[in-house]
Amino acid sequence: MKKLLIMLMVIVQLPMIGQNLERHTKVIKLMGSRFEITAIHENPQVAWNAINAGIAEISRIERLISSWDSNSQTSEVISQAGIQPVRVDKELFDLISRALQVSKITDGAFDISYASMDKIWKFDVRMTEMPSEEVVAQAASKIDYHNVIMNASDQTVFLKQKGMKIGFGAIGKGYAAQKAKEVMSGMGIKNGVVNASGDLVAWGKNEKGDPFQVGIADPQNNEQVLSWLNVENTSVVTSGDYERFVMFDNVRYAHIIDPRTGYPTTGIKSVTIITANPELADALSTSVFVLGVEKGIALINQLPGVECLIITDQDQIKTSENLSLNDKS
Predict the structure, then answer these.
(1) 21-35, 108-122, 166-180, range with the lowest pLDDT
(2) Rounded CA gap, 179 and 167, in Å?
(3) What dihedral angle (degrees, nearest 10) is formed by the CA atoms of 66, 70, 75, 77?
(4) For the chain, which residues make up each domain, given as ranges?
(5) Strands 148-151 and 191-196: what pairing?
(6) Which of 63-72, 175-184, 266-275 has the highest mean pLDDT?
């Protein structure tokens, strides 16, 4: 399940008579993805201290939720699947609990236990044929968020079935972006952006005093902007298959897996979610991808303060009820 290319979302600014604010930006690879962290402040030292603190916070979260680090709490939970519960830090316990809540409201379209599929599908040149039904079914049998057992009094997590895995690929970068924002805001940055390869949170305004804008790429030409979204104290997260997909029998399979079936999703090129919290937006972008256009929009229309934009594999644009777009002109 995962995520977007930085080229799909670009931050721009409108020219306007400005204040004595300056933009300071660092691009760095974290959590296996391109992060672009921006602080706007009149004092460069304050800005860079905050940016570096944001980077440190993202790195800390990566160590907490990584399944590649054998010493992480997440890896310990996985290694004890079907054996015994594992006590974890409150932060990880709460993150998993929130993920399970999203699973409930999406009827399993979002499921952190999808990670058992991670070796089955290879969305690159190595994938020359579909995996067998038996292989998919075996891996999918280990996916079920109901089997992630949380014990609040002991603060433990237990994966009931041996071979189960959890992964945070569809929620982790959104959470990290939010935490970095909180750290930077606490250090005096009133205006900034954290863009985690398409999981973007912006607060305040740009150095000219205008709202940040996010450009939604034209599905027929990724280098052209289709429309603009004004972004101020909110998050914009996009899941897309612009590069990671495969074609079999003229059917386009996105790299986002439907955890209910074990098979890739079809019918959608990208989903953009706009809401206050990037963690929630991250999870919902994947959820809508899995649910499909009609059910996905129906879900979003029921959630207060959440909007979405969908581009189908036929390059049609579908939006939730209250989403307002600006023309690219």
Answers:
(1) 108-122
(2) 19
(3) -150
(4) 1-329
(5) unpaired
(6) 175-184
Q: Report residue 123 as tokens.
A: 């969305």
Alpha helices by DSSP H, the chain: 44-65, 73-79, 90-105, 133-140, 172-186, 278-291, 293-302
Q: Over 60: is that where the pLDDT of 328 sits?
A: no
Integer Cα distance of 251 and 107 in angstroms: 25
Return the SS3 of 74. Answer: helix
Residue with tokens 């895995």: 165
Residue 317 in tokens = 């644009």
Residue pair 56/50 in contact (Cβ under 8 Å)? The answer is no
Given strand 148-151, what is the order of strands in its sheet? Answer: 86-87, 156-159, 148-151
Q: Return the number of other C-beta atoms located less than 10 Å from residue 43's C-beta.
A: 13
Which residue has 């914009």 as its token pair? 236
Q: How many CB atoms lie within 10 A of CB 284?
A: 32
Provide φ and ψ at 292, rounded to 5°.
95, 175
Secondary-structure class of domain 1-329 per CATH = alpha beta
